[in-house]
Amino acid sequence: MANQSYHNTGRLSRFIVRQDRIRIPVWIISLSVLSFMVAMAFTDLYPTGIERQTIAETMRNPAMTAMVGKGYGLDDYTNGAMMAHQMLLLTAMAVGIMSILLVTRHTRADEEDGRIEMIRSLPAGRLANLFATISVSFGTNALIAIITGFGLYALGIESMDLEGSLMYGAALGATGIFFSAITALFAQLTESARGTIGYSITVLLLSYLIRAIGDVSNETLSWFSPLGWVLGSEVYVKNYWWPIILTIGAAITLVVLSLYLNGIRDLEAGFIPAKPGRKYASTFLKSPLGLALRLQRIGLISWAAGMFILGASYGSVLGDLESFFAKNEMMAELLTPVEGYSLTEQFLTMLMSVISMICTIPPLMAMLKLKGEEKKNRTEHLLSRAVSRTRLMGSYLIISVMAGFLMITLAAIGLWAVGNSVMDKGIAFGTLYSAAMVYLPAMWIMIGLAVLFIGFAPKLSGLTWLYLTYSILVVYLGGMLQFPEWMGKLTPFGHIPKLPIEEMGFMKVFILTIIAIVLLTVGFIGYNKRDIRG
Known about the structure:
The chain is mainly α. 73% of the residues lie in helices and 0% in strands.
């Protein structure tokens, strides 16, 4: 009986791998190569022990501890200890997000689209799809662990020995495996892919928050977070394997529970009941704009709260930045001294570019939702009524543009409110807000690119995310990794005037706005002419 429940798991696993034959390698290569590049960059920036110890002293700052984790081996800050301290947590968060998206895509999302029903009508066991998804996700994380572990060791960097490198990779893999299991569980508890991602991401963020509070004030609290477990392995310092085993053991327990719940629940049902809606829709909800907003309101509210917290988090470290920069040569590589401005004000320009790019994620999601609705054959139902394509696409565009404005505004308010409370000499809100708002044209270009893809080649709309990722890498790490200047100019964020350090370049902003309008116009033309899927 048990064997019948898992019948054809292997075939389904191969099918999932084929579906993600591009997505999975891109994740693995991106995360691994990023780890290798940062490890080599650290070696070049801090070649002597004295320089590394200087940085170690700045890392004792509580704000830095909250952001990147408790520093192990600060008394002897080797290249390995520095790599594990400053990169392991951030990379583990990225691996967790990858695992959440991968498992959701092949469990609850497939169930929503009716593909699981089709699979079960074939000679496949009841638990085969879930088990195949978990197997592929575990395998992907195992590959990340192996490639990253052996790759870091192959760099031949002093203090990054074989055991420590393998543990670094294992910590990343264990994090991915744990959040794969968490996502598999929420795929049984919720009734939608949106709910599965929402609950899983919430667990990830809570794990980060609990660890941050624990690392700063109460070490015992950190052990209530899975991210605290992997950091507790003290990679390249003590190399404790038992936290890794604990993480994987907890994941296996969650997987067993998920398989049990999957076996006893009805298809398309969840153990957390959905809230029933109103009996009659309001007038606003009957419009394309109202419907599009209703579909995305929970996600947008969550992102809005997240952006305010993001701004407040960055603001909390502003008070100690002057003393921090004075000792941190890595940051000196990122910042070009400008006469008449403090290092904190100069850092704000880089901070604003990063915040603006993160704030671009929710408006892009809001715009690309139109493509998702079309893929699920819901768009044709609207267009069969007295709704034009321009009105439909315009509704999503309005939400996207407004979402971008709201996100960057909340992030700026959070940054200003908390930053001024910890700084001796605060920054005027108008100065900080204008430094944020100037990035709107770049955000509009990204939205315009998404509209262009939806209008002509919806299957290629994922390239918008690739372009945004490229922008983040070249703008944030370009200075530290010494990328050529032309690479930064390939993204619209690289052309935005860095207020208040630079003068306002009205012509640049005007040209970027015109480019965004052209992209939007051409995208609308394409959407009105092409065939609608369905």
